[in-house]
Structures are given as C-alpha cells and as structure tokens.
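Hi V.,

You were right to ask for the full record rather than a summary. Here it is.
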Amino acid sequence: MYSRTVLKSVHMKSGARLILGRFLSTDALTEKRVPLSELAKKNMIYTEKDGYIIKSPYEQISIPDMTIDQYFWKNMPKWQNHIAIQCGVTGRKYTYAKLRDHCAALAIRLRTNLKLEKNDIVCICLPNVPEYLIALMGAAEASLIVTTVNPWYTSEEISRQLISSRPKAIFCLVDNFDVVKKACALAQQPDIKVIAIKSELNHSFRDDMINFTELINPKGLNLSDATKFNKDTGCDDIALLPYSSGTTGMPKGVMLTHNNIVSNCEAMDVRLPYTQIVHATTNDFQEIVPVFLPFYHLYGLIIILLSKLSLGTKIISMPKYEINEFLRIIKHHKATLLHLVPPVIIQLANYEGAKPNHFKYARLVMSAASNLAQTDADRFKKLAQNASFFQGYGLSETSPLATLTPQGLTNYGTVGWPVSNVEMKIAGVDDPSFKGLAANETGELLVRGPNVMKGYFQNEEATKAMITEDKWLRTGDIGYYNEDGLFYISDRLKELIKVNANQVAPAELEGIIRENPDILDAVVIGVPDPKCGEVPKAFVVRRPESKITEQDVQEFVEKQVIKYKRLTGGVQFVDSIPKSPTGKILRREIRKLFLKI
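Predicted structure:
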C-alpha cells in the first residue's frame, strides 16, 4: 500500500501554495520518480497460453461495501463546513453539511409525501446546477434508481427515454417545465410527478408544479429517518440508469450498480505511480474543479461530481460552456483540477483570449471522451504550464472509466493502462472465441472488472451481445496495446457518431427521417468535421415523383432533435442503400461508394 502521510502546505513567496498530498506515495513526496519501464513490469502481460490478458499495474483495491450515498457521505464530517458545490453563474452554494440535510429531507419526502417505493425510477432532466446533486443523492438515499436525460432535448427526445424507463417522477427547471410535461404526454405517462426547481429568483411556481424547495426543507423532520430507506439496498442493486447506444442501435438503459460506481470512484483515487487528487482537510484547503461537462453524462456525473465530492472537493458548476465564462471562472476561483474534452482543449489552445495566468493554479488536467492529437496537447501545455496532463478512456457500460495514463507520461496517443482491479485484452474482430491477441496486434478491445455494467435494462438480447459468457464487455472499439501494456484506440466498430463528446445513434436519426412520407429509406453515418470531430450526414432514397429537397430533410430532422444531432454533414440523395442479404446496412460500403473513404 502507498504511505498515508499528513498533509503539509508550504506558502511560496509568489503567494502560490505547494501542496504535498495526504494520499501520495512516499516516492512522490520525495520526488523520486518511478520509471515507467519498471511500472510496466507490473502489467503482467501474459503469454498466448494465458490468453494475453493485461491486468492493471495500479494498486489493487478492496471495494467498500457501500451504496453510493453511504460512500459519498462517509468522510463528510472532516469537511462539513467547506463549500461542496457553487453555481458559477449565480453564486448560490451549499456546504457539505447543508447538502447533507437537504438530501436527507428529500429522501424522506420522496418516500413519504410522494409515495415512491424502493427501486422506483426517477428521472433527472437538469443542466449543471447545484440542485442536481441534491436530487441525485436524495434519490439514492431513498433507494430509488436514477435515470439521467439531456435537459436540452426536445419533448420528443425526452419522451422516448420516458417510454423506455417509465419513471415515477422527474426533476426539471421551472423554465423547462412545459417541455417536460409535453414529453410526459407524448409518452402517454401523464401521472409522472414533475418536480420543479427555481434557478433564478424571478421564477414563480404554478399549481401543477411540485416545489423542489419545499421537498428539501429539513424543518420539522427527523433527518436520521432517511437512513432507514436503503438499509436493505445491496451493492449489486441498480443505482443509475443512463442511456447509451452501446455499439449500435437505439439508446438502451445501462444498469449500473452501487458497486460499479463505488469501484470506479475508488479506482480514480488510488493510482500509481502516485495518487494525484488531494483530499480536503479540516483547515481551508480544497481542490477546486469547474464543471461544464454535463452531469447527465457519466464523465461529468461520476468521474467529476461523485468521485471528487467524495474527497471533499469544491465544485463550480456551469450550466453551459462558454469560453470566456470558463476562463473567468477558472481564474477567479483558482481552479486546481480541470476535466476537459479534446474539442475544448483545441479551442483553448487556439484562443487569443486564453493566457497562462488563467491556468496559474491548475495542477492536473484530464482529457477524455475522444482522441487527442499530440500537437494539440503540446499547444495546450503552453497555457497550463504547471499542470500534469493525463487521459482516460471508457464508456457508459464501464461506469465509465476503464483506463488512465500514468502521471508524467508525455505520449498523448495512448489511453493508458486498465484502472485498479480491471483486466483488458484485444480480441480478433471476427473471432467468436474472443481469444486474446499479442502486443501490437489490432482487434476489438474487451474489458472485465467490477466497473462493468449489470446489463441493459429490460433487454437481455442486447446484454448477451455486449457481454460474453465469461464476463468480458465488448467495447466496440478497435485498438492494440504495446510491449508496456499501454493501450491505443485506433478506430471504432461502433456505428455511433461522436459529435464533440456527444454520442449520436444513427438508428435514431434514420427512424426520424423515415417518418417523412416523401422518403423510402435512409442511412446516417458520421463524416469528418474540423470543429466537432464528426457530424451526421444522411443518405436518402426519395419516393418516386417526390420533390423533397436536401434542405427539406434537414429542417424535418432539425425540428425534432437537439442541435448536435442535426444533419450538419448534409443530405445526399441516392438510388439505393447498400445492405447485406439479411437486411443489415453496410455502412463501410456506403463510405466507399459515396464518400470515397
């Protein structure tokens, strides 16, 4: 085990503070760096006989037998007077102690006032506001299952997730109430209890809204009563139900257990060669993390919100990303940790208004969600000059983190090693046995460990297609590992289109397009885009005599989807869609025929 030493701080003449981590290894405290070549030996790259399974070189951990709310609050007394979360726009904030009281009050009233029962599903349809955390932790303590949905979705998009998950209640902002109510009507679920949150003082409640403020008021309650609701909840019970398209098809509910999430949080805290995140202390020190990455996405929800707050971190929430506002926040709040995605890193690196003094206090920068080019990382490092840079890889089905790069690694092409307690291998794309391949051989990446989902919600067929009999999760990503066991992602088997960090399921857009009476058939694929990485493009077969235009198709889709799902890549009319004898769309053939790639 790594050494647990007392936190020390040294004030520098410039006013900056050098923090020596409470949970750093002895080698880190003495600045004795462990060569990566030595760490690579811990990877245990097996022979062909052993299946070429790569085990994590990071510290193996004992996962606490806790639900996510128990895990979240376990060390809260140490930093109860610290600010837990603050809105970067309005400034409203909650200390850990206040947050604890509000979450307990909400748990009690969800079960008693609203009559929800254990394992009922509740939906959170909120942007990044401090109250998101109260809704999440209150629901968890009430032993409810939380499904998250993009708050910028149209009513039609929200209704599809409501039809699948059938929640008993939904949290939203007052100014999004009508959109959510329409979604409930479209889903033919008018009895869903809609709980409205005021994000602005000038908002007012209507009679058909359930007032969130009243539900979280601890007055008149015995808050210890909240603990009785999840005393029978097991770690293998479902905690979260985010929606993902997996390797293909329409979005499916990903059943993540309490154990899945806690294991991922622990893996982010215990890392070699040295743990990087400094836990809060009883004095005034906290790591400070601005968060614009959406909480409905697991990168924002688990990697940032849950894992960092369980360490006493201060979160500055941003309802939406705007570059100048982000720069203002990180400078004003002296942000120490930055969680980013490649499109934002590229934008910042090329933005004249971004200066090194904005990033003066940044110690750590993490990139995830898509590949980052070496040149872009090098350019960004000229801004965040004092920060260590590392990358991660994962997917919703791995809760979400599967790999992390070690601190000090300057090869930004790799996504690193498997996180603690996780195994990975590369299998042949067409090999039904999923036998592991040797170093530098390309194939599909498979993951096995406590972070792998329980399965897809009410979809046993999709679960069996995704998880093998011996519990390996098929990621749908193509890659390889080198002699040091470092993994690289080179391509995707997935049909998903990644617009920035957002997943777009072609099947969803194709279904919408085919609803148009002028269209016989359609296929959507991702095409390269310099700003977004990929954008959707549609290939459409018109009905005979139809006069529909490319713009007509784009506008038809635009009315029904969020901005990043629009057909920004264009519409191209074709005579037919290449398909296999079984009717499967041959997307690679479409690329060859129509895009010449």
